[in-house]
Design a protein that fits this description.
Elements lengths: L3 H24 L4 H20 L7 H25 L5 H32 L1
């Protein structure tokens, strides 16, 4: 992303959406809110985790790449589940979401710790 502040806000927002989606799923809530939060988490979270390891990108390019990487990763993992006859899409989303959230939390911490040093220069 273009600035450190934008990166922090986007990652914090994605983590919030993921936690809300997980909470709604565990709570058995149905409706539009669950669909929207789950859709946003599935479309952006895995790609954002991969892109957190890359240098800053333009926000529009970041959004496009995050969606593309998320869809590609979810498609490949779904194909692996079909080929191995281990079809557990909910389990896949839990593992993918948890690992993506962990990577984003690590990047959020790393970015926050390096932000004061960058502004002091």
């Amino acid at each position: 992303m273009t600035t450190v502040r934008t990166r922090l806000l986007v990652h914090a927002g994605l983590l919030t959406v993921a936690v809300v989606a997980a909470g709604l799923g565990v709570g058995g809530v149905t409706g539009v809110i669950r669909v929207v939060t789950t859709f946003l988490a599935a479309m952006f979270l895995p790609g954002a985790a991969v892109l957190s390891r890359l240098p800053s990108l333009d926000l529009a390019a970041w959004c496009g790449l995050a969606v593309t990487i998320s869809l590609a990763l979810e498609t490949v993992l779904s194909l692996v589940m079909v080929w191995t006859h281990l079809w557990h899409p909910s389990g896949l989303m839990v593992v993918l979401g948890a690992s993506s959230m962990l990577v984003l939390l690590i990047d959020l911490r790393r970015t926050r710790l390096s932000a004061p040093a960058a502004s002091a220069r």
